[in-house]
Chlorophyllide reductase subunit Y (Chlorobium ferrooxidans DSM 13031), 411 residues
Amino acid sequence: MQKKSCSTLHPQSMCPAFGGLRVLTRIDGVQVCLAADQGCLYGLTFVSHFYAARKSIISPELMNVQISGGTMIDDLRRTIEEIARDPVVRFIPVVSTCVAETAGIAEELLPRKAGNAEVLLVRLPAFQIRTHPEAKDVAVATLLKRFGNFAAPKKAKSLVVLGEIFPVDAMTIGSVLQKIGVESVIVLPGSSLEDYIEAAEAEACAVLHPFYEKTVSLLEEHGVKIVKGNPIGANATAQWIGRIGEALALDPSTVQAVAEEEARKSREVLNQFKHLKGKVIVAGYEGNELPVVRLLLEAGLEVPYASTSISRMALGEEDHKVLSMLGTEIRYRKYLEEDMQAVEEYHPDLVIGTTSLDSFAKERGIPAIYYTNNISARPLFFAAGAATVLGMISGLLGKKEVFMKMKEYFA
């Protein structure tokens, strides 16, 4: 696809601080203190309730006068002390955003502890972190660096599963890992500070999403083995289970038997959807788009174009090579205009994209759904994930005629 020249290009991602808030607000006993101006406070309060954990964030409500007047650190300290009076609060992350002065807060001027609560500065400036998935990585790495018990000896047969996943997926992953002999599993991002303490003691880490580069680098630096890939589709499922068995030195015959069993279950699901035919465009901003494309291709669908807001990263290189070999054009750090051009050029039967792209597709009579709410909010892994995703897509592909009738009616 040739990129058209355009005077205004629109990158696609939510505010990076949003990704960090998803990680931080879900920790038990947390109360976020936001160091930002009032505009940021308004927007991020909304998303922390609606998308994250239905929790409020507290802020000194910094205005330009306070920021430039030099009272910001005093205001922050006072706010931290007020938060710490609540005995329920165990953790106060101070989140600084991309207002130039707040982004440059000196960590040593903040307390490390207030009352019963740990205090930690988490920097999430948009001029440094491009997307909200990558901000999740920054938040997890910051938490691990502060709280991880890296000095402790590694626990045998213990595994960190790294990636924000649907609760059903966590249960399925835990069940499969137990079958192959994994004795301890910690999922990050976690809901407890203890998760971050214990994660540093794990022998290996299975990285489900490619954007956790800072976290992976920190774990590798402290001797944790890294397992790439994820159990999406039959082939990758067997490979993923085998890699974990190898990393933790588990019984090879048990690992192979479970890998074959789970791959067989996934193939049975894929066979149920052999009737699926059609061309799909996948264009999200969650950073986990390529494994989803891999599943669609394995099911026999055509995916001529896929895009994501994250950059091309080493952890996702395997998916990149597979998809490129199968003919999918991949666009990183994408713009809305590139996705719109792909719809015009490839004439898909279904678009799984951002809200702006979905509107563009529907205006042309093409069925379209929002990636974040319809893919990231559903199980993805193993046979159960394949059945859920492909079942939804099967229903949507059957509605193209309805969308065309609607288009003709309104025209």
In short: The mean pLDDT is 90.
